[in-house]
Amino acid sequence: MSLGKNGTNIDLELIRARLFNNSFLAPAEAAITLTSGAGAWELGPFSLDFIAAGAIPQDFVICGSGFGNPSANGDYTVLFYAGADDLLVASIGFNRSNPFFSSIFRDCVSNIIPGGSRIRAKLMQSAGGAATCIAKIYYQVIP
Hints:
6% of the residues lie in helices and 43% in strands. With 143 residues, the protein is mainly beta. Strand 6 and strand 7 (87-96) form a beta hairpin.
């Protein structure tokens, strides 16, 4: 940790990882389907694991997510959770309005996630009605 301009803290290891490490895609196979709750801004159920517990032994960060095929117009928010305790580590939002292209990518920087943690997500949407979308995440290992 180092002190930056205007007294702000800068995690130099995280910056180095973001600049010099490759990003990895998870899951490597088919995207995960997310479903919102029935009401407006109601969280849906937990998704399947994007990353299984124990799959990444080093600390890592989520650096972005790709979303596709949102089922309804509206604002979407995806919350990502890590570990056995499902701690919230990142949130990403996007919007669908017709016409919508089939996929969208959003950058984010999560909290540093301890190695060995599983990652899963929940979806909420402004219009309600159990909307769905598919998702994958991009992550980077902290050296």
